[in-house]
Structure formats: C-alpha cells, structure tokens
Write a structure and sequence with these properties.
122 residues; 0% strand; 434 Repressor (Amino-terminal Domain); 2 domains
Length: 122
C-alpha cells in the first residue's frame, strides 16, 4: 500500500466512524491544519501515527494500511491461534514419526516373510 491509499483509508474509516477532522486533530494532539495535511498527503504518515489513528478509530492497523480487515476466527487472538497451530503441528509431527517407524517395521516384517518363503521354496 502506498501513502495515498493509506490516507484515503484513514479518511474513509474516519467518516464511517462519524469523526470530524477537528476531533481527530484533538485526539492526536495536533493542529487541525496538521491533520488536514496528513489526510491530504502533504505530510508523510509515520508508523506510530498509523497505530495511534487505528486506536482512535477503533480499527486495526491492517485495515488502515490494506483497506480491509483480514479474516480472523471469531473470539481468537493471533497469539492463541499461533499456539493452537503450533500444538497441532507438533502433534502431527509426532504422528508422522510414529507412522514412519510403523512403515519401517512392516517393511522389515515383509522382508523377513519374503526370505522365509524363498527358503521354503528351495
């Protein structure tokens, strides 16, 4: 996303939240002109400003930067999801390891049976 898109997203979300430029300037502790310059594109947006604006508009930085909210599972935070998937991955790795050992054991059993059959055929 470029600065122009980010600024357009801020403006759009601000209007959706029914906030005026004056209210945003007050909440950011900057002058109205400074806020207008920010939305207009005369001033570059710093990362800390994007985070603070997202908080003030009760949205995510992703929505400001991307223009939409990424899909999230209801009621789960990112850290909870990472932990859950980490546990699942660990469990699956253990299962795969077990299955590999089982396959190796079965291959050895088949090889032994094949040898016995060959011996009996002679």
């Amino acid at each position: 996303m470029d600065n122009i898109s980010i600024k357009a997203n801020i403006r759009k979300i601000r209007k959706e939240r029914k906030k005026t430029q004056e209210e945003m300037a007050d909440m950011l502790s900057i002058s109205l002109n400074a806020y207008r310059d920010l939305e207009r594109g005369s001033t570059s947006i710093m990362n800390s400003n994007v985070i603070r604006i997202a908080e003030l508009l009760d949205t995510s930085t992703e929505e400001i930067v991307l223009g939409y909210r990424p899909v999230q599972m209801p009621g789960k935070k990112l850290e909870e999801m990472k932990a859950e998937y980490s546990d699942r991955i660990s469990s699956l790795e253990k299962e795969v390891d077990y299955l590999r050992k089982l396959v190796k054991s079965l291959e050895e059993t088949i090889a032994t049976k094949t040898q016995i059959i060959e011996m009996l055929q002679k």
